[in-house]
Amino acid sequence: MQQLQHYVLFPNHDNGMRLYKELKALGVRAVISPTPRTASKCCGISLMVEEEDLETIQSCAKEHDIEILKIAAVERDLNPKRDRYC
């Protein structure tokens, strides 16, 4: 069974950074990450978050008027050979 990683996608960098700041103040764990190509073709940042925090994240974004494009669930790619060149 594949595990899923959840990404919050934004229309611009500013919205991502604003939500990251608000989540950090709430004590919600979020990691700034490049947007995975399987979630969106655009270049930009996203926030990697835990599934159990999704409701809190959505309410925080709404409360602070931060636009979210979507929340994407992507299969975790645990490739032990990633970034190995030899």
Provide a descriptive summary of the structure in words.
Pfam families: Se_S_carrier. It comes from Clostridium scindens (strain JCM 10418 / VPI 12708). InterPro entries: Se/S_carrier-like (IPR021778). With 86 residues, the protein is α+β, with helices and mostly antiparallel strands. The chain is built from 2 helices and 4 strands; from the N terminus they run βαββαβ. It has helices at residues 13-26, 54-63, and strands at residues 4-9, 30-34, 45-49, 70-75. It has a 4-stranded antiparallel sheet, covered by helices on one side. The longest helix has 14 residues, at 13-26.
Mean pLDDT across all residues, rounded? Answer: 86
- Alpha-carbon distance between the termini? 30 Å
**Overall 3D geometry?**
globular
Q: Estimate the helix proportion, in percent.
A: 25-40%
Largest sheet: 4 strands, antiparallel
**Low-pLDDT segments:** none
Overall domain count = 1
Number of separate helices? 2
Give the total of beta strands.
4
* Percent of residues in β-strands: 25-35%
Strands in their spatial order, largest beta sheet: 2-3-1-4
H/E series: EHEEHE
Please give the CATH architecture. Answer: 2-Layer Sandwich
SS-based structural class?
alpha+beta
CATH class: Alpha Beta
CATH structural fold name? Alpha-Beta Plaits
If you compute it from the alpha carbons, what radius of gyration comes out, rounded to the nearest whole angstrom? Answer: 14 Å
Organism: Clostridium scindens (strain JCM 10418 / VPI 12708)
Pfam families: Se_S_carrier
Protein name: DUF3343 domain-containing protein
Domain Putative Se/S carrier protein-like: 6-71
